[in-house]
Amino acid sequence: MLRYLEKLQVLYFLEAQSENHYGEFDISFVEGSVSNREDEERILDIRRRSGMLVAIGACAISGGVQSAGNFEGIIKSEPIDAFVKVDYQLPGCPINKEILENFLKSILHGKSPYVPEYPVCLECKRRGAVCITVAKGEVCLGPITRAGCGAICPSFERGCYGCYGPVHKPNLESFLAYFPQAYQTIKLSANAYNKIYREKLWK
Ligand code: SF4
Ligand code: SF4
C-alpha cells in the first residue's frame, strides 16, 4: 500500500499524518455515514472540493449498522449518495486492501478503476470452498452480495452475512423465496439501508 501512497500527495488524512491541508482534492475517499446537519454540510463541501468522490465502506455506501434505527420511522443515518454524487464505491466492512491497491494503481496508470461487481459465490467457487447452502442448508447471502473479500466466511464454513452489500442487480425475489429467513439477516446487516435494498425490500 505504501508504495502507491508514496506516489500520491495525501493532503488530508488526520489519522495518518500531522500536517494536513484542507483545500481542493483530485480524489476524496470518504468513510462514514451522514447522521446530522453538520455531516451533511461537510459532505456537500467535500463534494465541491473534489474532482472524484469515492465512498469507502458499508457506512458511507449504505448507512452502516447505525441506519437500523431508520426503520423506526426516524432517519438517523444515511449513506453519502443520499446527498451527493458518488463516483465509485469500495465496499466492505472493513474494505479490502487489494481492492484499494488496485484502485490506486489504476488511478496512477490513468486507467478507469475497476471494482468487482459479481457475487461472492464466484469467489467461493474459485477458492474451492464447499457450498454451505448445498451441503448444510444454511443461509448464505453469497449469491446477492458483492465480491471482493475472497469469500472469507464460506471458506471458514460460515454463511456470508452480506458485509460487502448487494450486487448491482440481485435476484432478491428468487433468493428470498428460497431463503425467507435471509430477510432478517439483510435487515440486521450494515447494508440494510443500501439503496438497492431500500428500493426493492423496504418500500
Ligand atoms: S457457500 Fe455461499 S458464497 Fe459459497 S457458493 Fe454457497 S451460497 Fe455461494
Ligand atoms: S463472505 Fe460475506 S460477510 Fe464474509 S467478509 Fe465476505 S462479504 Fe463479508
TrEMBL record:
InterPro entries recorded: Hydrogenase_assoc-protein, NADH_UbQ_OxRdtase-like_20kDa, NiFe_Hase_small_N_sf
Signal peptide (from-to): none
Segments traversing the membrane: none
Presence of the UniProt keyword Oxidoreductase in the record: yes
Annotated GO MF terms: iron-sulfur cluster binding; oxidoreductase activity
Keywords from the named record: Oxidoreductase, Ubiquinone
Domain NADH:ubiquinone oxidoreductase-like 20kDa subunit: start-end pairs: 11-104
PANTHER family xrefs: COENZYME F420-REDUCING HYDROGENASE, GAMMA SUBUNIT (PTHR42845), HYDROGENASE SMALL SUBUNIT (PTHR42845:SF1)
Protein name per its UniProtKB record: NADH ubiquinone oxidoreductase 20 kDa subunit/hydrogenase
Originating organism: Hydrogenobacter thermophilus (strain DSM 6534 / IAM 12695 / TK-6)
